[in-house]
Amino acid sequence: DAGVIQSPRHEVTEMGQEVTLRCKPISGHDYLFWYRQTMMRGLELLIYFNNNVPIDDSGMPEDRFSAKMPNASFSTLKIQPSEPRDSAVYFCASSTNSGGPYYEQYFGPGTRLTVT
Amino acid sequence: QKEVEQNSGPLSVPEGAIASLNCTYSDRGSQSFFWYRQYSGKSPELIMSIYSNGDKEDGRFTAQLNKASQYVSLLIRDSQPSDSATYLCAFDTGRRALTFGSGTRLQVQP
């Protein structure tokens, strides 16, 4: 089975530009998570969806960030306008209810974003 | 107070030794605990999950959970240089999202 797929793998953009990151979760998984990882702050949850509905977006740093999940197999994280402090690795992860209180998450390869 | 505490390391052990990684957490409502391994430049990879007090073994890995003391640990037996990575502990408080520690960097010396 294919794992979580993310694109692009690397993105370099200039400050002020719009950036769109994409994610395809594992087929059949009903939870999708967006994380950001930096040396200073570690791995932070930005937002997560259940059955395509945003459940918790309290980790989204500011209004410049937005996320959508139009269907079960696709999600986007958009930053507009981008700033140098947004430079980080952005991970998408997915999980499903395996029948108990167990929600093991599986991560995609990440998108390394550099904003100059 | 941080929700998850991990020693950042590096923890250096010789090849063949037992590596012991520890994690403490502050939320007594936590139900599910996970250990992820992350190689440099790669994504976190789930290696162990544990939900009940006690030990859970999987190959060379043993996860230990003590909810009363609010700690979870990971033992790696017969450590190999390929085990050199950052190990992240994480827990789920029931809201389906994980809170991660900052990770412990493990170095296994050949």
Structure, explained:
The complex is a heterodimer of chains A (116) and B (110). With 116 residues, chain A is mainly β. Chain A has strands at residues 5-7, 10-13, 19-24, 31-38, 42-50, 53-56, 65-71, 74-79, 88-95, 106-107, 111-115. Chain B is mainly β. Chain B has no helices and eleven strands. The A-B interface holds A 31, 33, 42-43, 45, 48, 50, 55-56, 91, 95, 100-110 and B 31-32, 34, 36, 42-46, 49, 51, 88, 92, 94-103.
What distance separates the N and C termini of chain A? 37 Å
Average pLDDT of chain A, rounded to a whole number, is: 93
Report the uncertain regions of chain B: none
Encode the helix/strand succession of chain A as letters: EEEEEEEEEEE
Structural class given helices, strands, pairing of chain A?
Answer: mainly beta
Which blocks of ≥5 consecutive residues of chain A have pLDDT under 50?
Answer: none
Task: Give keywords.
heterodimer; A: 116 residues; mainly beta; 7-stranded mixed beta sheet; 4-stranded antiparallel beta sheet; 53% strand; globular; B: 110 residues; 6-stranded mixed beta sheet
Give a short overview:
With 116 residues, chain A is an all-beta fold. Chain A has no helices and 11 strands.
Please outline the helices and strands.
The complex is a heterodimer of chains A (116) and B (110).
Chain A: E1 5-7, E2 10-13, E3 19-24, E4 31-38, E5 42-50, E6 53-56, E7 65-71, E8 74-79, E9 88-95, E10 106-107, E11 111-115
Parallel strand pairs in A: 2-11
Antiparallel strand pairs in A: 1-3, 3-8, 4-5, 4-9, 5-6, 7-8, 9-10, 9-11
Chain B: E1 4-6, E2 11-14, E3 19-25, E4 32-38, E5 45-50, E6 54-58, E7 61-66, E8 71-76, E9 85-92, E10 98-100, E11 104-109
Parallel strand pairs in B: 2-11
Antiparallel strand pairs in B: 1-3, 3-8, 4-5, 4-9, 6-7, 7-8, 9-10, 9-11
